Target: histidine kinase
Amino acid sequence: MIDPKLRHELLNALNRIIGYAEMLIEEAAAESRQKQCDDLAVIRCAAQGVAQHLKGAFSGRLAADAGCEEDFLPICATSRNHVPADAGKTEGSRILVVDDDPDNRAHLSRLLHSRGYRIATADNGANALARLADESFDLILLDVIMPEMDGITVLARLKADKTLATLPVILISACTEMNQVIRGIELGAEDYLPKPFNSTLLHARIGASLEKKRLRDQEMHLLSQAMLAEAALDRHRALTQAVAGIAHEINTPLGIVRTALSVIQNRLSQPAIAASIGTEHAESLEDILEAAALMGKHVDHTHRLIENFKKIAVDQMVEQQETVNLPETVQDAVDLFKLSAREAKLEISLDVSGIRQAPEWRGYPGYLRQILLNFLQNIERYAYPDGGGGRVEITVKDGMDEERRTPVFTLSVRDFGTGIDSGHLTKIFDPFFTTGRGRGGTGLGLAIVKNMVTMALRGKISVDSEPHKGTCFTVTFPKQ
Ligand SMILES: Nc1ncnc2c1ncn2[C@@H]1O[C@H](COP(=O)(O)OP(=O)(O)OP(=O)(O)O)[C@@H](O)[C@H]1O
Ligand SMILES: [Mg+2]
Model:
């Protein structure tokens, strides 16, 4: 009877021959060297035959051996050339091979290197942990039985380390080491690979683990982006609430100033006052009245600003949620603008033929009216500034949101006027950005519109514009 240790070593050696033959077959097949493929296949078959004999001589001795049969199955050259569909995405991944046997390390490194992975090696558990502390990897291939620190101890240390706990580990083990493998899987190993290596199984398990890690990393990245966006939105909300709060506080004393000023103007304008002051001080009286008028103009302007500051905190405005017919609501808003439109010679058309499903919207018609009025006022003021007027096309459609798979409405407001300078396009939604300060613009209109769309309507807004061709604002929001 062959000594089990000798048998184990013979099988190991044979499997290295099989493994190298398979790797060379793969390389030869990639370069269409058919003759070399055939010769190497003969070597591989012969080694597989000897291995089968060796195993046959011991059949029934070790129950766990049954699980090793797949390692000796002949593998045809074509199936070995199979590269998983996602191979490109995990190419270049960094793999740490930890094995005390130099032949195993060399064999694995070569096999994996030929698939485009970047390989580093460690010859024992302590060295592996030292490398992991300094470098980052995507996967570890970890031999279970090693002198000094075995694979299971390394795995336990990794899982106890917060920064390394999610790193996937594939255990490498002989079939007789099933108990340790089970312990490793319980500790959180991703998978295991039986020794001797079956190259197809090796690539399949490594590919699957790396792909899983790639998707997990992607998910973590998206999650952290969503958290950053949420934090930015929270800051924005806090800021707008503060602005609205201050505006509210200023509004009351400003109202008192306005009233007091009206009293002063009224009283000083009375003929009796002018008569009692006499011609001597008539000029001074005129100066006072002029100054009061100037103050009145600026107080009114400040009042308008304050009103806009208040509107910026959308959630502090009181609007009712209602179920309405969307085309009718849009038509109502356009009608509200009728007088101004006539004066500005705007020719407004409304096309709702793109609504194919139910036209009902569960939302805030008050906000939608304000959004439309802001667009139309901007068109009047900026798109057709010389008073010559022009066309405005409003369209409403319905459809599906691709990401969330929910029904949405899309509202577009297009003009054919001056357009927006490309350098301004990224700024127009910023509070206080305006090119019309001299024309009474505060630069808050579109900032308020954006807040209403994103916060109250839970939608998105975008703009398309080309100088001298026109501008189109598009708002998409859920039907309910
Ligand atoms: N339809 C448009 N055509 C050309 N420019 C536009 C149009 N709509 C907006 N703009 C540009 O975007 C800027 C910002 O618009 P926004 O409504 O925020 O502020 P505003 O109209 O200047 O001031 P406010 O609305 O607060 O009175 C405008 O100053 C203008 O330069
Ligand atoms: Mg505006």
Q: What stands out?
A: Residues 58-86 have pLDDT under 50 and may be disordered.
